[in-house]
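User: Please predict structures.

Assistant: First:
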Amino acid sequence: MEYLVVAPLTVPPQLTVVTVPASEADSGTWGPWGPRTMRTRNTYEAQDLLATWTTLVEEHELPGGDGVARSVSMVSIQNTSVLTFRLSTPDAPGLTALAAEEACNRAVEHLLDAVLGRECRVRWINRTLLTSAPSDAPPNWLSDRTVEVHLGQRDDDRGDTTSSLGWGNNLLVGYEALPAVEQQEVRSGLVDSQVIWVSLESIAHRSATVARQQAQGSPPGRRDVLATGRDAEALLTEISTHNLLYDDMALNIQGQRRKIAQAILTAWRYHEIAARIDNRVRNIEQIAARQRDRLDAAYQGAVEKVLAFLGIVSGTQLLLAVVGLAFAGNVKAQPGGDRRGIMYMLRVVNTDVWLLLATALVVGLFAYLNLLRRRAR
């Protein structure tokens, strides 16, 4: 049995490997004409999905008679690393789907130990069975939800190559009949789907953590609200960056690579799940904005009370200054004029009355403004 195994990894920063020459790297990026610009269906220039293929080992025999791993490579796209290789296992009559899956799993675990080291952690394993007929697949190899694709016309009498892509396990019929460049494109499409899904899964995990923090019963403080606002902004930025990956696949990449990646993501209900995660992040941002507005309103109310107090004090000081002016100099002449003047009234009326009137005026004005603010909510 032949499998293409693709396993996204969590790779520590200190891990270093030797990069293969550019001509052996991303087959869809460079050709004999330099940077490719859609000259044929296999000529394009990837941008956000620009891949670097690193050969770890050409051939590695697995222990316990589990077969041989060939073309073991590490693919790096932005900050995501993916382990991929071709696995050849001995033919076993009556092979079950579970046994085939475990054979691929053991191969990945052994390569982590023997080639990469245990500091690399595998996220999950995607297995693709390479066969000449769908009947060669073990029973229940595919999930209930699959998407069929045609890789191309074969030279024999069996016609088109109808392949099925699903969750966890895939089935490629007629892969061996494809030219070498298209085989590489199929492998790149398998890697692209994993990279896009890893990006979406990371956003889903971080947004769920923030949403659970918002759902806590205790009222958040200003520091918590500001931190949640920064998290929401970061999540929106991550969604924008993630969309660039899918847009690059949908707009720039062509041929077998785009066909395989789109089919796998469709089988995984990518668009439905991406819409739910985007809606979750928008809800987080809206809740954070409302919490921030509520805290700002409370802060504004406190500031208004302080300003009202300062207004009362300032009004009182102004009144005392005017009364003091009324008693300045020779009160029989100036200031004050005759009995019809304001200064005369300030002198003859009890000063406590003026204080009470000024205080009542400021407090009444503050109460009126506060009432208008409440009605505006």
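Second:
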Amino acid sequence: MPVLVTQRGLIHELKRLAQIERGLGHGDAARALYEEAVAISRKEGDALLLAHTVRHLGDIHQDAGRMELAEPCYQEALALYRGHDGTAPLDLANAIRPLAMLKHDTGEVEEARRLWEEARELYVAVNVREGVAESSERLARLGG
């Protein structure tokens, strides 16, 4: 009997496989899976699903040192999260975090500081101690 897979189900499976590949250190394989998941997510029309997926694609690019490809992914994810009333604060904080790291790594210290402050506020609001600790540590290193 054939198995019926929805588009959303396919997106989730592609992302699951991409995480496995990433965990194994297979960045190119993970990138290809995330790119496919992003393409399907765009057609699906679920802004939050797309935001989450494109953020992870950004992570793959950032892991590989492709900051010029990572940043647009993070900016898109943030725009989608900020434009959606149903965005969970933790999802927003988790999208801000890698962009703050990228901004720091590319020498945009003031922007990194602003982003870490916003992430920290969100992590405090949802009581994620690890996020609060990391944000506070990064701000201290930035002198903020």
